[in-house]
C-alpha cells in the first residue's frame, strides 16, 4: 500500500457523517438539559447570575482584570454607549513563585498591587481624588459614589459561582497550586487585598471568559439583534448562552435579578460526553487521552480545541512514519523525491515528542494551495525539522491535518447547533437573525473553520440551509476586557441603594483594627492628609458601626 492509499485510510477515520452529526446534536441536547436539572452531570451548566445582555447603549468607565494561566491583565474600559469602547491595559507575567505561593494572600496582594499601579498610571486624577475624599469624608455618601471603580474579575479556573461577585475556587489548574485558596471566595480574596491598599475599587463581578465573550459581542454587534451564545475555540473550548430561568430547574443559590426571566449559563461543554456515548474515538484519540494529565475528562474538548488538534495529527503522522509501506518522510533514494534528494527527520523534531506539533502549523497546511505545497514544506523544515519532505509527504500531512480539523469544526457545529435549537429562536418569526460571538485562535486563524461549521449547521435536522442562513457567527474579541466591564456594569445596576453603607462599615472596622499610623495613611502613601481626618470622620458617623 502506497502513501496516498495509506493516507486515505487515516483520513477516513476522521470522517464525521451527517448522520453522526445529528446523533451528536440529540445527545448534546440531552446532556445539556440534564445539566439544567441537577449538578454532577457531564455538562455542568453553571448559572452565571448574569440575567441580561447589553444592547450597546451602556456607558461608563469600568475596570477589568484577567487572571489567566500565565499573565495578569488589568484594563479600564470606557463604554461609549454607541457600541464602541476605548480600552487601555497593562499586562504582567505572574511570577512563577506566586503560582505556588504559601498563602493566597501572597498572590492576591500582588494582583491588588498591579491594580494600584495601573490606577496611578492611567487614572491618576480619579485615583487621588477618590482617595482624598475617602480619607476626609464627613458623609457616608462620600464613600461610595461614581468615584469608586467597579471591577469585573475574569478568573479562568474552575469556580463554583455563588453570586454575581462571589465564587469558591474548586481547584487550581494550569500549574497553580496554593492550597489555602481552595474553597475560598476568590472575589473576597481580591477585595481584601484591594482594601488593604485602600484603593477606590469594588470587585463587582466574577466573570467566566465565555460569558464575557457573549457580553462583548452583544455590546459591539450592530443592529437590534442581541447575541445568544458566546463560544471559545482557543486552547480549550467552552460556551455560554442565554437560557430561560424556568428551564433551569436545579437550585440557583443566592440572589439574582428575576425580572428578565433569563440567565446566562456557562455550559462547560468541554466535558460533553465524557462517557463516550457518541463521540468518535480513533486509536489516536485514545492515546492522546491516556497520555494526558486528566484521562477520561474533557473528552469533547480533546477532539475540538487548539491544545489537542496538533497532538492528534502528530500521533497519526507518527504511526504513518513507523509504517514501512506508507514510507512517510522517507525516501529509498533521491530519485523518490521530486526535489532529487532524500528526506530526513531530525531526532529533535517536534513530531517525535508529546505536544510537539502546534495547532498553528495545521493552519499553515490548510492555507497552502500551491501546486508544490512549498509553504508547508518550508514549515515542516523550519518548525518541525523535517528536511526536504517530498510533495507526496506534504500532501499526506495536509490531508491528515485537514481531516482532523474538519472533524473538529463539525463537532464544534454540534454544540453551536444544539444551543440554537435549544433556544427555540429558529421558529420565532420575530427573530430575523441569531447572533453568535466566537473567540480563540483556532476559529480566528484556521482557514475556513467557520465555513466548515456553517456547512455542518446546514446538515443538522431542524436547522437546514434556511436555518443556517439565520445564524450569524462573528468574532468577538476581548471578552475578558469589554465583557468583564459590562458584567461589572450589570452588577452595579443590581446593587441596592444601601449597599455602600455595608462597604463603609466593613472599611471602618478594618481600619480600626489596624495600628493607628497605618490606618490614617492607608489610602495615600504619598499624600499629606493627616491621620486625624479619618478618625474625625469616623466619630461623625458612629451609628454606622452598629
Ligand atoms: P487562550 O485559549 O489561552 O485564550 P488562544 O485563543 O490564542 O489562547 O488559543 C491558543 C491555542 O490556539 C493554542 O492551542 C494554539 O496551538 C492554537 N493556535 C494558535 N495560533 C493558531 C493558528 N494560527 N491556527 C490554529 N490554531 C492556533
Ligand atoms: Mg482566550
Automatic annotation (TrEMBL):
Molecular-function GO term, any one: ATP binding
UniProt keyword terms in alphabetical order: ATP-binding, Glycolysis, Kinase, Nucleotide-binding, Transferase
Domain Hexokinase C-terminal span(s) in chain numbering: 229-489
GO CC annotation: cytosol; mitochondrion
The protein, known as: Phosphotransferase
Domain (Hexokinase N-terminal): residue spans on this chain: 8-219
KW Kinase (keyword) present: yes
Tree of life domain: Eukaryota
Family indicated by similarity: Belongs to the hexokinase family.
Pfam families per record: Hexokinase_1, Hexokinase_2
Biological pathway: Carbohydrate degradation; glycolysis; D-glyceraldehyde 3-phosphate and glycerone phosphate from D-glucose: step 1/4
Matching SUPFAM superfamilies: Actin-like ATPase domain (SSF53067)
One example of a Gene Ontology biological process annotation: canonical glycolysis
Group of enzyme by EC: transferase
EC number, as in UniProt: 2.7.1.-
Signal peptide range in chain numbering: none
Native organism taxonomy: Eukaryota, Fungi, Dikarya, Ascomycota, Pezizomycotina
